Automatic annotation (TrEMBL):
Identification of the protein by name: SAM-dependent methyltransferase
GO molecular function terms attached to this record: S-adenosylmethionine-dependent methyltransferase activity
UniProt KW Cell membrane keyword: no
UniProtKB keywords: Methyltransferase, Transferase
Pfam families given in the database record: Methyltransf_11 (PF08241)
GO biological process: methylation
Methyltransferase type domain segment(s): 37-128
CDD domains: AdoMet_MTases
Amino acid sequence: MFDYLAPFYDEFLSVSGRYTTKPVLENASFREDSLVLDVGGGTGHLGEKISGSIDLDYIVLDESEKMLKRAARKDLYCIIKSSSSYLPFRDEVFDYVVCVDALHHFEDKVKSLEEMMRVLKRDGVFYLLDFLPKKLVTRVICFFERLSGESTYFCSPSEIDKYIIGSSEYRALNSFQFLLKANKN
Ligand SMILES: C[S@@+](CC[C@H](N)C(=O)[O-])C[C@H]1O[C@@H](n2cnc3c(N)ncnc32)[C@H](O)[C@@H]1O
């Protein structure tokens, strides 16, 4: 689906980004000189904003070549084409792992969460933004995404928490979205 959406995705985000990019920028914090991995990072919209305001190395990983082609036009450290189920990195290399509006698209959510935890350093921070299951907005999104062939499934923060190494907390951003923050120990 995202290969088709790629040419319009940044324009789409200029509206929908208030529910994805904006809350992350407002609620997450990043250290200078850190290494960040954005899994399902798409066109690098969030990465461009973060690395434009803090001096850090931001990697966008995505399985859609066309989304990554858009990301390649931005000032990011690097882009990587891969599935979230097999992150091509050694253990514990990233200071931050970010996953925004993407987990519900991943075919293997458990493997993806395990992989994101594996590549995160001890004391590293994981940020995940997604939609709360069972809410009306979420059901509508689910309906349309499944119609277009996506294997959409929304996990609750407590389902995600089972795969977190360390402690996690989440805050509801509104009636249908949450931002989870985990500190790996
Ligand atoms: C809704 S977009 C979100 C993009 C970006 N995080 C943002 O907030 O703008 C979901 C992204 O997840 C990517 N994606 C879906 N399944 C994936 C997988 N298994 N591995 C890597 N990326 C995946 C899609 O290609 C798409 O770019």
